[in-house]
Amino acid sequence: MTRILIIDDRADIRLSLTMLLNDNGYQTQEVGSLDGGKKELVCSEFSLVLLDMNYALDTTSGEEGLSFLSWMKSKDIVIPVIAMTAWSNVDLAVKAMRLGATDFIEKPWKNKRLLQIVNQQLAYQDLQSQNLKLKQQLKQMPKNEYVWQSDCMLQLMEEIKTVANTDVSILLTGDNGTGKSELANHIHQLSPRKEESLISVNMGSISESLFESEMFGHKKGAFTDAKNNRIGRFELAERGTLFLDEIANIPLSQQAKLLRVLETWEYEVLGSSQTCQTNIRIISATNGDFDKLIQQELFREDLYYRLNTIEFRVPSLKERHLDIIPLTKFFIKKFAHKYHRSELSLSSSAQKALVEYHWPGNIRELSHLIERAVLLAKGEQIELDDLHLSSKPDNQELPFMMLETAEIKLIKIALDKTEQNVPKAAELLGLTKSSLYRRIEKFGISI
Fold first, then answer.
1. Could you tell me where the beta strands, DSSP code E, fall in 328-371?
2. What is the dihedral of CA 7, 9, 13, 19, to 10 degrees?
3. How far apart are CA 153 and CA 359, in angstroms?
4. Mean pLDDT rounded to a whole number for the chain
5. pLDDT band at 140 (very low <50, low <70, confident <90, very high)
6. Is the pTM of this model over 0.90?
7. The domain containing residue 341 runs over which residues?
8. In whole angstroms, what is the distance from residue 217 CA to residue 426 CA?
9. What CATH number does residue 378 fall under?
10. Number of domains forming the structure of the chain
11. How many angstroms separate the CA atoms of 151 and 318, rounded?
């Protein structure tokens, strides 16, 4: 159960807070002095402190409360502290925040407001704790990165290295499956923000009606289905990196809202009038044609220039000819370890076919193909038959037909190639998952 320490020199205040918090499922410990609070914090564990700022020595300045916050800071006691005072004093609130208080409330308080602040602080503390655990796990994971062989990738990695340690906005362009997400993570790991979070969001999967809620968060009651507070992606990425994948798919009606944040670094949580400041680095990715989108007035030119201070095109797998076999062997080793198989070799006929294949799905397709081959390989070597490569290139000449018929045929080819996996088929076709589902329903295609 969550334990809350109440520090206040008035017994009636302590009793009221104890009854309120206990009735709402919290366990409390109360003390009537700052010295008593120090003893409790040294000897016991608490999730949150409710701290009165004024005591008998001085009932208005809050100096005793500030001294207590300084003591907590000197002892490296890092837990949320909600400062309380009967005297409305903006200057005191600012001083308390600078010394580590996480929120401020005036007496007499409103029960609903106080509980809301307590819930918010505990939820944020829990999120911080989870992030710390994830960071520790990531640090313990062995680094197993592939080293590129092709000149085009070596040049790209060098260019990325020169700007990764800045806060400049980066736009990654290139075909689906070329590894833009992995490059975004690589940039983050090379940056001064690497100890903070990298938050990824697929802009193509956010509906227009939920855009503000997903990106900026919302307060409980902000709209009909807002039954709880929600933290937006900008807040989750605070002091870290926000990766906006499929950025070309953001609805035109929402582009102005994103532009405003990138221009001012300010935003409002949905349902709140308070303006929030954000400190993040933006990395975006797309396979869209911005010149065409801007010309068709489907994408704002000013937003485009905000996103691509530096633009890097990620080469297709066919352009990384020297990497096809080494990358294949890298994936074989990776998936053999994952599925507890002895390391597999690759036959010469399989290698020849992999080099000659046209790779419409790029690295993502190669990864999926090798994962399946590792799982299904019968012997100690992956043979050509284990790869299930298409015998015909995607650019084969099609007979003349109605556009709708051609679309149906391409959808069926993509579904067959991905074993009826709609998300993977959508990637091969350059569509979002929802777009492909709509076409499947429209044409009555069975899956």
1. 345-346
2. 50
3. 17
4. 88
5. very low
6. no
7. 317-387
8. 29
9. 1.10.8.60
10. 4
11. 13
Render pLDDT for 57-93 as a digit per residue (tens, 0 to 9): 555 678 888 999 999 989 888 899 999 887 667 778 8
Which residue has tokens 């030119």? 301
CA distance readout (Å), 72 to 37, 91, 363? 10, 20, 51
Shared domain check, 296 and 210: yes
Per-residue pLDDT, 60: 61
332 and 309 in one domain? Answer: no
Per residue in 240-290, pLDDT (tens digit) is 999 999 999 998 889 999 999 999 999 999 888 888 999 999 999 999 889
Q: Tell me whether residue 113 is in a domain.
A: yes
- For residue 137 the two structure tokens come to 């796990």
In a domain, 418, yes or no: yes
399 SS3 class: coil
What CATH number does the domain containing 170 carry?
3.40.50.300
Annotate 59-84 with b (16+ C-beta within 10 A) or e (fewer): eebbebbbebbeebeeeebebbbbbb
Q: Are residues 230 and 249 in the same domain?
A: yes
Same domain, 120 and 61: yes
- Please identify, among 260, 292, 313, the residue that sits at the C-terminal boundary of a domain: 313
